[in-house]
């Protein structure tokens, strides 16, 4: 049975999953990886969600405050062996619930065009494409999405 927990960026399992995420992104992003990595620090993230099965960490996601009404979804990752089993959807759903509890009206996120699985996940979960925001304005490989909380 999949268990979802809330924690923060000091959680050892989160730190380990992010190492796998960063290794995967380094391959996918190629020469662009250094640019993206500067925005992906996990220091002092207060809102982290982890998925477990039999005490084994399977995936993660996090929220960072973007502005007073908006949370940014960050560091989404699911272990390759358990992909396409609904785990990422459960993680993002828990992140959205948490954002609602924090009185946020929407979630935003950025992903790369090369992360086709991520693009599919976000669209499937009701995220809509928006103009690139913040540091992603003018970045050709970036796709930005938002979802208003209901």
Structure explained in plain terms:
The chain is α+β, with helices and mostly antiparallel strands. The protein has a domain at 2-105: Aminopeptidase. It has helices at residues 12-29, 33-37, 87-101, 116-124, and strands spanning 2-7, 47-53, 56-67, 70-78, 106-112, 128-130, 142-148. A 7-stranded mixed β-sheet has the order 1-2-3-4-5-7-6, sandwiched between helices. Helix 3 links the parallel strand 4 (70-78) and strand 5. The longest helix is centred in the first third of the chain and has 18 residues, at 12-29. The protein is globular and about 45 Å long. The model has no long low-confidence stretch (mean pLDDT 91).
What's this, in brief?
This protein has 150 residues and is of the alpha+beta class. It has four helices and seven strands; from the N terminus they run E-H-H-E-E-E-H-E-H-E-E.
């Amino acid at each position: 049975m999949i268990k979802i927990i809330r924690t923060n960026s000091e959680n050892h399992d989160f730190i380990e999953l992010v190492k796998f995420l960063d290794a995967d992104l380094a391959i996918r992003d190629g020469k662009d990886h250094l640019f993206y990595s500067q925005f992906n620090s996990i220091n002092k993230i207060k809102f982290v969600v982890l998925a477990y099965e039999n005490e084994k960490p399977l995936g993660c996601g996090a929220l960072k405050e973007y502005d007073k009404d908006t949370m940014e979804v960050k560091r989404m990752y699911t272990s390759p062996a358990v992909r396409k089993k609904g785990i990422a959807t459960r993680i993002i759903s828990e992140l959205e619930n948490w954002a609602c509890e924090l009185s946020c009206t929407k979630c935003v996120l950025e992903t790369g065009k090369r992360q086709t699985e991520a693009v599919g996940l976000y669209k499937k979960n009701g995220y809509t494409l928006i103009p690139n925001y913040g540091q992603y304005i003018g970045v050709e490989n970036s796709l930005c999405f938002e979802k208003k909380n209901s």
